[in-house]
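Re: export button greyed out
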Amino acid sequence: IAGITQAPTSQILAAGRRMTLRCTQDMRHNAMYWYRQDLGLGLRLIHYSNTAGTTGKGEVPDGYSVSRANTDDFPLTLASAVPSQTSVYFCASSSGLETDTQYFGPGTRLTVL
Amino acid sequence: GQNIDQPTEMTATEGAIVQINCTYQTSGFNGLFWYQQHAGEAPTFLSYNVLDGLEEKGRFSSFLSRSKGYSYLLLKELQMKDSASYLCAVRDSNYQLIWGAGTKLIIKP
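Workaround output, generated via the alternate export path:
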């Protein structure tokens, strides 16, 4: 079934630990995105990639890094997790055209203690 | 700064009609999106407006007025499964989506 998968579904992490959230899409979309969603706030863009090999910073990039080695995968790494990074993380992808729509993965619920 | 405003919560009755408003102030405009998000799930695409006017898609319609920085989502013949949050998002001059906090819609029988 075509779509976006994320792993893990949920994770509890000790502060200071390193964590990589995985995202894979099989729709051959050029663009991919990482958002965080916190209660009472809109989705906020962390990092994005318009095409394989390129990445860019979004609204809230501090404490996060990404890579885009190929079209399908777009992992998000927290180098040293802090409690303020407790959130639900959504990966999304789009074809990259001007009128395109973003499609979302199921999300990862991350708790940093 | 950039801002998307929508009501935090609305309540409606099964079978009725509800209108969810969204006002925006963004640096540039390249389209407005509405997404539906059920609790604990991912947002799913509902509609896209880039020109002024009404776009109809089954029970859902979306309206845009670019001069007023205003959009609404109209849901007709409400069903219990429509209970969800509805997210308004505007694509700005950098082609990034700016998201509202969402409107939680509660449907009562």
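Chain A has a mean pLDDT of 94. The button fix ships in the next patch.
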